[in-house]
Amino acid sequence: MRIGINRVVQAGVVAAAVLSAAGGAFGEEAQTLSKLASFGKPEKQPVRAELVTEHASVQPGGKTRVGVHFDLDEGWHIYAQEPGDAGLPTKIQWSGPGSVSFGPLIWPKPLEFVDPGDIRTFGYSGSVVLGSEVRLSNSVAAGTPVTIRAMTEWLACKDICLPGSAILEMSVPVMKTEPALSTHALLFEQVND
Hints:
Number of helices: 2
Distance between the termini: 37 Å
CATH architecture of the largest domain: Sandwich
Number of domains: 2
Oligomer: single chain
């Protein structure tokens, strides 16, 4: 049902733009459609996603962990790999240059949620990192940063469910020296190998 509302909202935005461009004769209709375009969209998204690494840099031929840190508003949750009776699993698709390889996604132990009707689902609330090991080939020269991207999708639920997505990107320095832990290293304690 949410997808249908989004299509209506998108159609309303297009129609409002066309009516506004047509001039004063359609001004009131354009304002009404513009108001409809914001229907069903929360003013603030309940989930924030940030790309993080365990180390501040990586060595040529070295490895570290990369993850998406999800920070959820109170009472909201996203779903685990096996969401249970309802929900959709959170998805992360990693990409980078050919000199970078990614391991499988590591899922922390999920929480169990029981919704009305005894619907049992599994996921995460509060703060969670879903991560993977990233490994650089020996051919990457020190001093050359590598760009890592994550395309992620989730379904966040509380009293209603809202789909969300983000395309995240960061540059990771490649250095010959032993890498220091990043400011986000503690977040990876929940990511079990």
